[in-house]
Design a protein that fits this description.
By secondary structure, the chain is mainly alpha-helical. Helix content is 56%, strand content 2%. Helix 4 packs across helix 5, helix 8 (157-176) packs across helix 10 (230-243) and helix 9 (204-214) crosses helix 10.
């Protein structure tokens, strides 16, 4: 459903974007063009704003959020890089549309073009390195904090799973469902359609780092992205992994 809604939104704005993807100037009534985008800055923005829906390297989440590795679709819908930037500025991120500046939107569009090889192999390598650097730093930080607190030791895993389940019932179920089935703004996290097993977050360190930095994607019951403690993020990760039978107690 979310995938269909995303493409419907895209088709709904493409006509307006085709006219130049700018905004009228308050002074002269003309069109203010999109600024030039910085793909590396876009990669950094992606890591903090877009990754939670579209995946670590733009691969998307099947049945929930579209892949960004579809250059033919982007060119068909938006015409060019400026058109894509215009769409991003007015419609993304899905949880807070219109919150990005024109420069941020231009950077994000430049990143997507670079990720698809439209700016040459060297620039693509640079944006991938920026993505990997951001992911590695987050994972390392979470791993160090968890290790220092003793939170991921085998003896404490059962307690963490129980704590994570309690927090899930307060926050995460709103989008992901009480049984992790998804369907209310968030993808399924376990079960036949779960996106964790076989993915980049199928381990405690990576998943807890991702949760700590990005979840919940929208303010929910007093929590927002970045507000969870390392212990809370680790507990949620442990609970989710236990439901996927990926955690040894």
């Amino acid at each position: 459903m979310r995938k269909r809604l995303w493409w419907a939104a895209a088709l709904g704005v493409v006509t307006a974007l085709a006219a130049g993807c700018g905004q009228k100037s308050a002074a002269g009534g003309g069109i203010t063009p999109m600024p030039a985008g910085d793909p590396v800055a876009g990669a950094r923005l992606y890591s903090t704003t877009c990754e939670q829906c579209h995946g670590p390297t733009g691969e998307g989440i099947k049945g929930a959020y579209p892949s960004l590795l579809r250059m033919k679709d982007f060119k068909r819908l938006y015409g060019n890089q400026a058109g894509l930037a215009g769409f991003i500025q007015h419609n993304m991120p899905f949880t807070d549309p219109g919150s990005l500046t024109k420069q941020q939107a231009a950077d994000a569009a430049a990143f997507i073009y670079a990720l698809n090889g439209q700016m040459g192999a060297s620039t693509k390598a640079q944006v991938l390195a920026a993505l990997n650097s951001g992911s590695s730093s987050a994972a390392s930080s979470a791993s160090s904090s968890t290790s220092a607190s003793g939170g991921s030791s085998t003896a404490n895993l059962s307690a963490e799973v129980a704590a994570g389940q309690q927090l899930w019932s307060k926050v995460c179920y709103v989008c992901h469902g009480s049984n992790g089935q998804g369907g209310n703004g968030g993808p399924a996290l376990w079960g036949p359609n779960g996106v964790i097993k076989g993915g980049p977050y199928a381990n405690l360190s990576a998943l807890s780092a991702f949760i700590k930095s990005n979840m919940p994607a929208a303010p929910t019951n007093g929590y927002k992205a970045g507000s969870l403690s390392t212990q809370q993020a680790t507990g949620l990760a442990a609970y989710i992994l236990s439901q996927n039978h990926l955690l040894s107690k």
